[in-house]
């Protein structure tokens, strides 16, 4: 009996290891999406779930999962064939992560953060799902510093890292066209507590060596279209387009990125005021 049990256990462990190895050796896709108070205030849940399913992403990071509990998220994620999911909290503006493969939770942090962040590990890759302050520049600076203290040691140790979500700040990589817009300075004058003249939070992340994948893969003309707003917000009148949703990775993982883009179609205009951002990677064993 003991011998049979040992053989069964060995077989199970071997199969599990083989599945994990296969996952690492296959191309994979990640998606980040701020879904506007739980898919346009819960009015576009079915549409959002179907759209995400069609993208066939391996890992999905979500922001503004308002009204969601862990059980509710679990049921929703199964609709796009993700049996694994985790939510940061069950009140306010939670972030969440769903995956085709198991998720190891490293940290859930709300303290000293506006909304909080998730730090998880999926197939050997550290995943940070972030949603920085939408209205206070000094809070975003603090949040970027807190996150940097977590990310820097991982980069130093040559770990695989993805940081993605709604950063609510602009990038110094976009400075040339951002500063050329008259609306940029007008917005700063109108919102002095939210103004970021020095691009400080994103500069902090980039100084760690993280790579902005969409910036690396897309021409400036596409970048200028921004990640916000979609037609949901445009209905209220003309609004300047900002690029505030990002997928950042460590330099080595960035080399495996085959494509990265802000996704635009007629459906996403009904789901959220943000456009989703997606990146695809070649097999990591290459």
Itemize the secondary structure elements and their pairings:
Blueprint: H1 2-25, E1 28-34, H2 36-42, H3 45-55, E2 59-63, H4 70-78, E3 84-87, E4 96-99, E5 104-109, E6 117-122, E7 125-131, H5 137-156, E8 160-166, H6 175-178, H7 182-190, H8 200-207, E9 211-212, H9 213-217, H10 220-223, H11 231-234, E10 245-249, H12 251-255, E11 257-262, E12 277-281
Parallel strand pairs: 1-2, 7-8
Antiparallel strand pairs: 1-12, 2-4, 3-4, 5-6, 6-7, 8-10, 9-10, 11-12
What does this entry look like structurally?
- The protein is of the alpha+beta class.
- The chain has one domain: Endonuclease/exonuclease/phosphatase (Deoxyribonuclease I, Chain A).
- 38% of the residues lie in helices and 22% in strands.
- It has twelve helices and twelve strands.
- It has a six-stranded mixed sheet with strand order 3-4-2-1-12-11. Strands 5-6-7-8-10-9 form a six-stranded mixed sheet.
- Strand 7 (125-131), helix 5 and strand 8 form a beta-alpha-beta unit.
- Helix 5 (137-156) runs parallel beside helix 8.
- It is globular, with a radius of gyration of 19 Å.
- The protein starts with a helix and ends in a 5-residue tail after the last strand.
